[in-house]
Design brief:
Layout (H helix, E strand, L loop, with lengths): L1 E7 L7 H14 L7 E5 L7 H10 L4 E6 L6 H18 L2 E4 L7 H14 L5 E6 L5 H18 L5 E4 L4 H12 L1 E6 L6 H8 L1 H8 L2 E4 L8 H13 L3
Parallel strand pairs: 1-2, 1-3, 3-4, 5-6, 5-7, 7-8
Helix pairs in contact: 1-9, 2-3, 4-5, 6-8
GO molecular function, one term: metal ion binding
Enzyme class: lyase
Organism: Corynebacterium endometrii
């Protein structure tokens, strides 16, 4: 029997872990093959991956598929996740395998496009707000994702701001240039970096004379993507 484990980076935000748990439950609904679904975190929150694997073992699972809640192939994806999977597997006795992360392809683009259609005023420029990375290839993948969303929604250009690289200043430039901006966070859950962008709303509007609105983090909208990653990995497991 196999467990579905979603693995987040973790956050000090008080609402972050709760939404990850909701996503794990929602993904389980789309992956009934999983014996159990649980949420683990690389840091800041409990349980970590080792404890989550132990919980899966106690429930009767002998294997676990870990779906990293990551949009880009950055350091966490290449280094932190494989190391955490190896260590948790050795410590728990559960055979763990990492599935591909959420990524920045068409399945995630469709989730964002649905958010745009639901939340974004027709007159607003749509902007994706991502964390940002020291790896420029990871940042470029977010820009390509914005292009996919633009094509799916017919909104023309979709902008991108990176919370750790320009952040508030770049968002202000977007509002100054376009007048009305709607931000869709490329965040799975709530986070302090996203809060900083939201907290700057009044100052940005006062400085530019424009209007700025925000969607909520993607959260359970990603359940279908997580379930698909699990099923695909399960089909490749001997």
């Amino acid at each position: 029997m196999t467990a579905l484990i979603v693995l987040s980076h973790g956050s000090r935000h008080p609402r972050a872990a709760g939404l990850i748990e909701q996503l794990a439950r929602a993904a389980h609904g789309g992956a009934p093959e999983a014996l159990i679904a649980c949420a683990a975190h690389l840091e800041f929150n409990d349980p970590n991956l080792e404890r989550c694997a132990a919980q899966a073992r106690e429930a009767g699972a002998r294997r676990g598929i870990v779906v990293p809640l990551l949009f880009t192939d950055g350091y966490h994806s290449r280094v932190d996740v494989p190391r955490a999977v190896r260590e948790a597997s050795a410590a728990s006795g559960v055979e763990l395998a990492a599935a591909p992360g959420l990524g920045s392809g068409e399945s995630v683009a469709r989730c964002i496009a649905r958010r745009v259609e639901r939340d974004a005023p027709e007159s607003s420029r749509v902007v994706l707000a991502a964390v940002g990375s020291s790896d420029e290839a990871a940042n470029q993948s977010v820009r390509r994702l914005a292009g996919l969303v633009a094509g799916m929604t017919g909104r023309g250009g979709v902008g991108v701001v990176f919370a750790t690289r320009g952040g508030v200043e770049d968002l202000m430039d977007q509002v100054r240039a376009h007048g009305r901006v709607h931000v869709v966070p490329l965040f799975v859950t709530h986070g302090l970096l996203l809060d900083r962008l939201v907290a700057a709303r009044a100052d940005i509007e006062a400085a530019t004379g424009g209007a700025l609105t925000f969607s909520q983090p993607l959260g359970t909208d990603l359940a279908e993507v997580v379930a698909r990653r699990f099923r695909e990995a399960l089909s490749r497991t001997p």
